[in-house]
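Here is one chain, start to finish.
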Amino acid sequence: MAEKEQKELTYAQMAEKSIMKKYRRQIWTPFVRAVKNYELIQENDNICVCISGGKDSMLLAKLMQMLHRFSDFPFGVKFLVMDPGYNPVNRQKIESNARLLEIPITIFETQIFDAANSTDKSPCYLCARMRRGNLYAKAKEMGCNKIALGHHFSDVIETTLMGMLYGAQIQGMMPKLHSQNFEGMELIRPLYEIREEDIIAWRDYNGLEFIQCACRFTENIENTGEYSSNSKRMETKRIIAKLKETNPDVEYNIFNSLHNVSVDTFLEYKTNGVRHSFLDDY
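Its structure:
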């Protein structure tokens, strides 16, 4: 009997193939474009890919793993999972997905959920700040000079719109940032030009299941049905979806507006923390 013409692919290889073939235009191309356009990776960088266990960070890990393999210049990549106090089910899900996608993760533990859930004042803000600080510290300890996070195109436009509607400010989400508290460290966002709906499509096509935000605070409000219906981010998603009904390009218009800012038309603006008024040079 003749041998099989093609060796059976592993699950990870099939996921990679879908990125390079079926979702090349939606995922691989905008990923590579963002890396190049915003100069996110330089030769001999050592990048710590931070994995929360959700769809965005797991796709980021796979993309960075593939880029590391195909890149025409050398750079290092490590895959870091911070356990801030996951329940056993979510911890196991992250580990099993990493094995399935053949991503060699390093896990370290913290008690961030306990600290964040002990306060009634902005627990999500406190959790995010503590997560970021712990990730920077661990990445630096591992010899990395950059951390990569899974914020995507949809996060960028939603955050921009939320700032205007609920924060009374025009503030974007940058594709890369220098750390103010960890000298020599930088944050990069390689998914910057990939839409969330395309990440969801890739996930579903491959039959993958990832965790959501798994803190006890979020679990509680999800159980009451309040998170999905009343969160400002979900409300902003609905606004954008409604606008798309009559203007299919609205997402790209919001995104491109961040590249076409006319500061001369602003009444006031801040740069490096200093506020300026149009009257200063009027």
